[in-house]
Amino acid sequence: MIKLIDVHHPWFKPLWRRILVVILPLGWALFELSRDDEMWALLFGAIGIYAAYMLFWVFRTEHANSESEG
Predict the structure, then answer these.
(1) Which of 31, 59, 64, 69 is 20 to 30 A from 39, comparing alpha carbons?
(2) What are the residue boundaries of the structural domains of the chain, listed by start?
(3) Where do runs of H (alpha helix) occur along 1-70?
């Protein structure tokens, strides 16, 4: 599987940055949806959902595994 977001990058360590990276595309998806542009809304919604998955689910499980090993 291709990782588009590197959860090991130190820039993603603060929680507020991870939240911002998820909220921005989801907010843009809502904006596009309000303008009746479903294709762009779907695209940005998918980007936001992928970012949420990578930055919260994968981030949490990989950091929990690294803490238990070390």
Answers:
(1) 59
(2) 13-65
(3) 15-34, 38-52, 59-69
Q: Max CA-CA distance within the chain?
A: 50
- Pair 40, 32: CB distance under 8 Å: yes
Long-range contacts of 25-32 (CB under 8 A, 24+ apart): 25/51, 26/52
**Amino acid identity, position 13:** K
Q: How far apart are CA 9 and CA 26, in angstroms?
A: 22
Show pLDDT as tens, one digit a residue, over the chain (70 residues). 677 888 888 999 999 999 999 999 999 999 999 999 999 999 999 999 999 999 999 887 776 666 666 5
d(CA 58, CA 12): 12
Nearest to 5 by CA among 61, 63, 47: 47
